[in-house]
Write a structure and sequence with these properties.
Blueprint: E1 3-8, H1 12-18, E2 25-29, H2 39-52, E3 62-66, H3 75-82, E4 89-92, H4 98-115, E5 123-127, H5 132-136, E6 148-152, H6 156-162, H7 176-192, E7 195-198, H8 207-220, E8 224-227, H9 233-240, H10 244-259, E9 265-268, E10 271-274, H11 276-290
Parallel strand pairs: 1-2, 1-8, 2-3, 3-4, 4-5, 5-6, 6-7, 7-8
Antiparallel strand pairs: 9-10
Helix pairs in contact: 2-3, 8-9, 10-11
Length: 294
Amino acid sequence: MRSLLFVPADSPGKLGKALGCGADAIILDLEDSISPERKEAARAGAAGFLLAQTLSAPERPRLIVRVNGLATGLIDADLDAIVPARPDAIMLPKVEGGASVVHVDAKLTAREALHGVAEGSIRIVAIATETAPALFLAGTYRGASQRLVALTWGAEDLSAELGAEANRDAQGHFLDPYRLARTLCIAAAAAAEVQALDTVYVDFRNEAGLRRECEEARRDGFTGKMAIHPGQVATINEVFTPTPAAIAKAQAIIAAFAACPGAGVVSIEDVMYDRPHIAKAERLLARAKAAGLV
């Protein structure tokens, strides 16, 4: 998944338009964008939207529901409403380490059994940095659940918890506490062997700022980014889609090692590559294949 677009689950018009915006995934939001008095309507809206989709996942965006966090007391009602409608995944906010994922895995397993949904078919994307305790638990996701497919991070809730006046500087760059959270997310995803997704860019009319942040995220190891506006999707997809040059380089690295099975190092155009470059090349080609480029 390169681009994941948030859409309030109580807005049928926005949900309908989101299907055609080019996002790899649509996140039907039951959490922050929904007021307390609209939660039940949002659950019904999310379930109805999911049930109305008849195309298989490869032919449509992935459909993810952001539920409310474990501490809110609302997640059970969320899952009761949406599991029968079979989303591709849930997005779990306010996660505090692998124990939170294990807890929600159990909740999903019980409801899948109750509603005849194949066990494990609903995956989990976890937001790993929204609370202060979560930062100290970033290394605990490995092996927590086979459902876990991605980790992402957030700065807005974390800044509120820290009592910070701002989370970005005057140039729009994240300040140190949030750069730490970002780094922990990348490391946690790598340790758990799942996808790392960058957080939202809230200045949605600033295309140059969005592009810069996408390019920095790709450089550092993120393979996708969340969006809050359909207008951000094209830029996110472009930046996180491997270029022909990058694909050719990855293919050359793999071919060079295949030609020298016992080699620890190969040379391509006077540049030396060692075996860790194989894994990097394979990951890039997997993303290219998912985008239909190879």
